[in-house]
Design goal:
The chain has helices at 2-17, 20-40, 47-70, 74-88, 97-111, 119-130, 136-147. It has two domains: 2-88, Hypothetical Protein Yqey, Chain: A, domain1, CATH 1.10.1510.10; 97-147, Arc Repressor Mutant, subunit A (Orthogonal Bundle). The chain is globular, with a radius of gyration of 18 Å. Helix 6 packs antiparallel against helix 7 (136-147). The protein contains seven helices and no strands. By secondary structure, it is an all-alpha fold. 78% of the residues lie in helices and 0% in strands.
Amino acid sequence: MRLKGQILNDIKTAMKAGEKDRLKVLRLITAAIKQIEVDQRIVVEDDEAILGILNKMVKQRRDSITLFEQGKRQDLADIEIAEIDIIVAYLPEPLSDDKLDALIDAAIAATGAESIRDMGKVMGHIKSNAAGAADMGAVGAKVKARLS
């Protein structure tokens, strides 16, 4: 509950400081967490689950930025960029390419993967060790290239 508690404390701080844009984004984060809790009838306390929610929010905003820029609406794209900056502050540091390659090599060795059919095992191993610090789409492409 460490990350969830930090977000709730940051809401209070943003309210006291009058940071309306930051407060809006933090409330969006808590709303997304509450939506998962209501839909699945669980209490989200696990940091890994919250990191998944945050990663999904960042991905949605990146998709929106692309669409806004194609529609020549830079003003809306700037709002999305500012929201990403706030959300990313709660995510762990992304892994460097060297560390990611080392993690992929370790996962392939640990699972004994030899072909593309073993990709699921490797991805599961990486996902448990990366904990939101890597874009799993990019990781999947690298693993696929190594196992092919």
